[in-house]
Specification:
Spore Coat Polysaccharide Biosynthesis Protein SpsA, Chain A, two-stranded antiparallel sheet, 11 strands
Length: 249
């Protein structure tokens, strides 16, 4: 399968403006993401898709393949859709949307993600992992997912699902899966997804994948032990700097 990785990156983040160019270990976070994905050797091309000239020029400085996209996109998926449309879906089998705030992404979880497409029923793929503590489960910033026995996603929520009606006092950890927001799409499916209108469930939970489920698309998930360290705030950046120093001693 011919796979393309696209890293959407915008400068005007509400909680952390300029986040893609914030440095970790003296290197912009987005550069960490780009180089890790490139060195995975899983993709015929890795593209940074941005709407900001600062990011575009910075990426050129690392010899990254960057393209300018519309500043009207509401999500990274839409930005990926624009890039994919310019290339043409027939030239690609799989498109992976890699979050630009995952500076420690590595080959192993990406390989698992792409591997899901050996199943012809898979239209959209994503990753999940076990929670480390119960406080993460009740945190609405962490999306939870319920899966069928075949790995098909049944529902995503910011709430703690499933609800344990008769297990008061029991540990919650074995029952819950954390959603990791990295997506992969069959190229023709992505073309369809970006045409969908926002849905009621999506608006309620602020989770775009619910729009896809409401419209009948199948999302399958693979479990990974990859531990995410997403950077959403300046406080997260401090944690990322500590982690970077730890693994590069």
């Amino acid at each position: 399968m011919k796979a393309l990785a696209i890293i959407p990156a915008r400068y005007a983040s509400t909680r952390f403006p300029g986040k893609p160019l914030a440095t970790i270990g003296g290197k912009p976070m987005l550069q960490h993401v780009y180089e890790n994905v490139l060195h995975s050797d899983l993709f015929y091309n890795v593209i940074i898709a941005t709407d900001d000239k600062k990011i575009y020029k910075a990426a050129e400085g690392w010899n990254a393949h960057a393209v300018m996209t519309s500043n009207k996109h509401q999500s990274g998926t839409d930005r990926c859709g624009e890039v994919a449309a310019a290339i043409g879906e027939k030239a690609i089998d799989i498109i992976v949307n890699v979050q630009g705030d995952e500076p420690f992404i590595s080959a192993k979880p990406l390989q698992k993600l792409i591997g899901l497409f050996k199943n012809k029923e898979v239209e959209i793929a994503t990753l999940v992992q076990s929670f480390e503590n119960e406080s993460e489960i009740i945190n609405p910033n962490n999306a939870k997912v319920v899966l069928g026995k075949d790995g098909r996603a049944l529902y995503f929520s910011r709430a703690a699902i499933p609800y344990l009606r008769e297990n008061e006092g029991a540990s919650l950890l074995p029952y819950y899966m954390k959603h990791i927001g990295i997506y992969a799409f069959r190229a023709h499916i992505l073309k369809e997804l970006v045409k969908l209108e926002s849905s009621a469930l999506e608006k309620a939970e602020k989770l775009e994948q619910l729009r896809w489920l409401e419209n009948g698309y199948s999302i399958f998930a693979a479990e990974t032990t990859y531990k995410t360290l997403s950077v959403d705030t300046p406080e997260d950046l401090k944690d990322a700097e500590i982690f970077y120093k730890k693994i590069n001693r």
